[in-house]
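2024-03-11 09:14:02 INFO worker-7 job=invfold-0412 stage=load source=structure_tokens
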């Protein structure tokens, strides 16, 4: 088998016309899903730690249910079933955003729950001793420290999230991988396009992982 690799067709025009749009969507999806996932995940974590069965049970079912299903299946189910329920399509991009926020919230919830539980109980009692309510204690004492302690783990999960954005190909959303795929088909070089996509994903994720390690060391020194 004579495998001839030709990179000559790669240019800035190709990147601007095919890849940039997909990269923009992948980054946007990552940022929105991270912020939304952390917000919803924090609520779920507080529900599970509340001690109220009416809050603990649904939060536990949601988190364990989401973590037990492959992300690509959740993407497909939401994209195919929601239009049947509401009677109109919602679009691949919007469907991807909602699905990622809902799915990642389950993982961010466990990270935040671990971060909250890592705070010494003495600080909780100290807040209560000065007259803070449960909400004030969480807002002013516990959550800020939990976020700081869990920041490297939250960022690592964000990197994984960025990698997972490639799964939106299943519903036809135009992410970075889709851009490389279309470029490869248009130029008749699918192998080179997928190899280039691999390199780009690796460079981005490796650079982000290196930054997270640096941040983790700084946080360890502060402690």
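2024-03-11 09:14:09 INFO worker-7 stage=emit residues=223
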């Amino acid at each position: 088998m004579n495998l001839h690799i030709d990179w000559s067709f790669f240019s800035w025009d190709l990147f601007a016309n095919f890849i940039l749009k997909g990269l923009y969507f992948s980054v946007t999806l990552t940022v929105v899903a991270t912020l939304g996932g952390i917000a919803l995940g924090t609520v779920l974590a507080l529900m599970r730690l509340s001690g109220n069965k009416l809050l603990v049970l649904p939060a536990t079912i949601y988190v364990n249910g989401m973590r037990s299903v492959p992300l690509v299946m959740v993407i497909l189910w939401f994209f195919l079933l929601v239009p049947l329920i509401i009677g109109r399509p919602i679009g691949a991009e919007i469907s991807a955003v909602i699905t990622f926020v809902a799915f990642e919230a389950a993982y961010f919830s466990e990270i935040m729950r671990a971060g909250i539980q890592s705070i010494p109980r003495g600080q909780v009692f100290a807040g209560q001793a000065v007259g803070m309510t449960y909400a004030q204690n969480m807002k002013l004492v516990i959550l800020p420290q939990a976020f700081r302690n869990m920041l490297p783990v939250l960022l690592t999960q964000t990197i994984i999230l960025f990698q997972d954005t490639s799964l939106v190909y299943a519903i036809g959303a135009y992410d970075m991988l889709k851009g490389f795929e279309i470029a490869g088909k248009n130029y008749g070089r699918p192998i080179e396009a997928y190899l280039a996509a691999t390199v780009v994903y690796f460079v981005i994720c490796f650079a982000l992982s290196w930054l997270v390690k640096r941040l983790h060391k700084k946080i360890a020194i502060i402690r």
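2024-03-11 09:14:09 INFO worker-7 stage=report msg="The mean pLDDT is 87."
2024-03-11 09:14:10 INFO worker-7 job finished
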